[in-house]
Specification:
This protein has 14 helices and 22 strands. It folds into three domains: about 1-95 and about 275-345, Sulfite Reductase Hemoprotein, domain 2 (Alpha-Beta Complex); about 110-260, Sulfite Reductase Hemoprotein, domain 1; about 350-475, Sulfite Reductase Hemoprotein, domain 1, CATH 3.30.413.10. α2 packs antiparallel against α3 (about 80-90), α2 packs antiparallel against α8 and α5 crosses α7. It has helices at about 5-10, 40-55, 80-90, 125-135, 210-225, 235-240, 245-255, 295-310, 330-340, 345-350, 355-360, 370-380, 445-465, 470-475; strands at about 20-25, 25-35, 40, 60, 70, 110, 150-155, 165-175, 175-185, 200, 205, 260, 275, 285, 295, 315, 320-325, 355, 390-395, 405-415, 420-430, 440-445. By secondary structure, the protein is of the alpha+beta class. It comes from Candidatus Methanoperedens nitratireducens. This is Nitrite and sulphite reductase 4Fe-4S region. GO terms for molecular function: 4 iron, 4 sulfur cluster binding; ferredoxin-nitrite reductase activity; heme binding; metal ion binding.
Amino acid sequence: MDITLDLGDISKFVGRYSLGKDNGMGSLHFLRIKIPAGRISAGNLFEIANISREYGRGYAEITDRQDIHLHWIDGDKALEVFERLYKLGYTTDMCGQGFPGACYGDVRNIVSCPLGGKVNDFDASEYAVKLTSFFSGNPEYNDLPKKFKIGITACGSDCVRLGVNDLALIGIEKEGERGFVPLIGGGVGLTRPGPMLARNMAVFVPASRLFDFVKAVVGIHRDHTSRESKAMARFKNLVAAWGVDKVRKVVEDKIGELEDFTEPLNLGGDVHNGSGRQRDGRHYFTLPLVGGVLDADKLDRIAELSEMHGGGEIRLTPTQNVTFVDVEDVNALRSGLEKHFGLYDSEAFYNSIGCTSRFCGRTNDTHAKDMLGEFLGVLDKHGIKEDVRIHISGCINACGCHQVAHFGLVGKQIRRSNEIVQVYDLYTGGDSRKLKMAELYRDSLMPEEATGLFDEIMSRYRSSGKSLDEFLEVLNGVKA
């Protein structure tokens, strides 16, 4: 495709589009396309499938922030791709790996409940869409010390892993007024001060003041988080240094006083798997995807089926799955999906995630998504269908949020017998819903050792007669 662009055209891409750096599978560049609130029309999905075919070898991934990830992007064709995305109304993450210092961070795609507005009438995803539009390409917020992640939900469950976000917003109703309780300072990578779950600010932010509140918090990150090095440049470092009370004071200096809110939040664990009924009597149906891996043809099938059996809208989920909404006949949709996809009846296939380490060069053979497939295979072998959550990160950056799952793996490379080998550390007992961090169970396992150990642990679990939470408490008490 020959697209001619003048300098005026190119200026519309500045601060809104960026190629990321890949270092594996022969890919030099990736695109992480922001899909606001994970909502995408069938028509737009068809076009992204075409972009994947033409520029990305027909491969695509759903990320755990409701983005679509394309790889093998030729830098010489970047402006062509940007133009195609611009016409769709989509932007990309502003990936800052190419800059040596703490600069040019942006507000990443704001994750929200994939069923916002469908299962309850407080639709927090609308705020995610508006905030994403405001921050994307906004020059006031395009040079943050480092990226800033926001999660928002009002469905009563932690379907977006609230605790791992720089800013998490929990929608509630207080005496008939809608608003949000914010948590701040989450981030589970090893940047300073280390893995940290978001802390409750214990305030109530009325929905009418949410926009100003979020701008104030992101502005504090921009103006006060350290730029001394990338390792010190996440917002959690400032929250750890200042404390929640000081952050609150500075926010209130900007936007006015906020009301205390100290009631327990009591979030549930529902992440809207399988099928269910919407408020309007129609249905939703979630298609599980191991590691979010798709190809262009499967993107087309998803778009086609959403038009045939729903309203032509698809929701991408924070667990790397696809949810069909406004479905009239669930059985007809299921029948159509079975021809192209695996439909699993295990909760673990819906709730487990794996990062894209094969492309960023952080792992050798066996990559994070491969390990996810191996671990899910162990559950299938033992007939375990309940909600066992497995999160796998390829490296200490913790893109797979391994610290907040029942079982987490994090990859690393070490020297053994004069060669560099791929190993994994196994963590157990985390739970994002309880803001509970997992504990290291065994370190430096070869991939086959990790799978074998997990097999042994699941065998013990099956015969224990205990609930998963009870079993994990015992397991963590007898670490070898």
